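Work Package 4 report. The design task specified in the project plan requires that, given a folded chain encoded as structure tokens, an amino acid be chosen for each position. We show below one input record used in the internal validation round.
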């Protein structure tokens, strides 16, 4: 086991760079923090390149880290890698999954959702609802942003999450005869009036402006969730959960 004690060590500098989207994109890797996320990553062992652990914490003995390099670091180094208020002292450097071909029956498409907590919650909800794949369009926060990772609670390791052009994806879904449901306030039907079969795609949009109108023009149908109280709207992640569970039934 390696032991690093200097914050100026080149390895430490490289790990800290992974807190930026630019370096995550360049290297094809990302950093996860905390016992739960590192354990979920290890279950997909081929994705974990290295574990970093504070000398005050240690790796839980139940974990299978055979073949995975483990580096022990000082608490100072560990804290410098954290983006949380209460660091747990353990991290994993992971390989970004292949963004290759995908053959799925159910999809969640996300258009320009910018809040990392919302995006992570939507990914986690899609995972819980048994959705096969999540497609994240341009204008959305980076899927490997640390808050997205924490909000998703390990779902990045459970299902494909693909960064793509939603215009291209809506065309692909049409070619496959997969019904595509948009979310809109005008010219839409109440979601409870909709029936689905085992294949469908749902597209949800930006917190303020909703789904792009060009995308809505290419859907099979557009849906809305009735508001019974005085709130003007639902949080996009909450709305996504309601619709996914209804359509998946």
């Amino acid at each position: 086991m390696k032991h690093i004690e200097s914050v100026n060590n080149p390895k430490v500098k490289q790990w800290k760079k992974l807190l930026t989207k630019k370096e995550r994109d360049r290297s094809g890797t990302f950093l996860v923090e905390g016992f739960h996320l590192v354990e979920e990553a290890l279950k997909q062992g081929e994705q974990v390149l290295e574990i970093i652990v504070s000398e005050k914490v240690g790796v839980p003995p139940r974990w299978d880290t055979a073949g995975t390099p483990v580096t022990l670091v000082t608490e100072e180094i560990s804290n410098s890698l954290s983006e949380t208020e209460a660091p747990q002292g353990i991290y994993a450097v992971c390989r970004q999954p292949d963004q290759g071909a995908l053959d799925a029956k159910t999809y969640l498409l996300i258009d320009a959702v910018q809040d990392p907590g919302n995006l992570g919650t939507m990914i986690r909800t899609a995972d819980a609802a048994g959705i096969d794949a999540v497609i994240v369009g341009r204008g959305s926060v980076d899927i490997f942003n640390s808050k997205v990772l924490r909000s998703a609670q390990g779902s990045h390791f459970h299902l494909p999450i693909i960064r793509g052009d939603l215009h291209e994806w809506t065309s692909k879904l049409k070619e496959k005869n997969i019904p595509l449901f948009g979310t809109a306030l005008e010219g839409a039907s109440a979601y409870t009036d909709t029936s689905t079969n085992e294949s469908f795609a749902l597209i949800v949009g930006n917190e303020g402006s909703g789904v792009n109108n060009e995308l809505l023009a290419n859907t099979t149908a557009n849906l809305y969730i009735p508001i019974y109280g005085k709130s003007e709207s639902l949080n996009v992640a909450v709305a996504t959960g309601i619709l996914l569970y209804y359509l998946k039934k």
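Residues 39 and 63 are 7 Å apart (CA to CA). Validation will be extended to a larger panel in the next phase.
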